[in-house]
Amino acid sequence: MGHENKTGELIGLLENEKWQTRYKALSSLIKQDDNSALEIVKKMLNEDENAHVREIAVEYLKFNNSFPLKPINPENVNLYHFPIKNSHTKLGIINATSDPTLSENEAIENIKYKLKQEAAQLGANAVININCRKKFLLLKQFKAKGYAVLINDAPEKIHVEKSNKVILLGILYIIWGLSYFLFNGTFNLFSIFILGGGLIIFTAGIFKIKQYQKDKLYLTIMASIIIVMLILTYIQMSPYIDWWL
């Protein structure tokens, strides 16, 4: 009777307004090997506002062999190279490597297939923050890493979590670097590196927002920025030009 009373008390706490209390109550129910709150926890997985609570809800359901709530078809798993604002529950990090015998285009499709397969096995309907690149410089093999997630609301209505802060930081560094030139008519080493760093940060933010995944183009832009920085640095340090301060 005491055990039943404690279990009933814990189930009552699942509706507490503090997410920490709901989280601890679910953790305790798992430790007690309880399965009497299945329907309540299923509802929490879909409706609870706190991601930590939803994650422990997944653990409770897994412990009671009730997750995923319904089979996930790999073909219905969506892949995103960016973070999302949609309410979602992280189910784990997944890694995939393409078959080394495939061509570059085939390898990309192969790795997408593998990501979807692994995500579906975890009960996820999407993979976010995917980082995909060549495994070795001279080979066509690709490797990818991302977060398998269960999107709670309509997965077809995705809201992108843009990197506005990153882009703003890049712009501020660019303005900072250019301001020295505007006030002094030239650059010095410090302003060159501030300007170059700002351009790199700004470019990285744009690539993330636009979902650009062309590594060669990305590396070319970064290399160009670095080369320009080195040229400006050389000009400033040259003993034949009196720009150096």
TrEMBL record:
Q: Which UniProt keywords apply?
A: Membrane, Transmembrane, Transmembrane helix
Q: Where are the transmembrane segments?
A: 166-183, 189-207, 219-237
Keyword flag Transmembrane helix? yes
Superkingdom field: Archaea
Check the record and name the Gene3D superfamilies matching this protein.
Leucine-rich Repeat Variant
**InterPro entries associated with the record:** ARM-like, ARM-type_fold
SUPFAM superfamilies of this UniProt entry? Answer: ARM repeat (SSF48371)
Q: What is this protein called?
A: HEAT repeat domain-containing protein
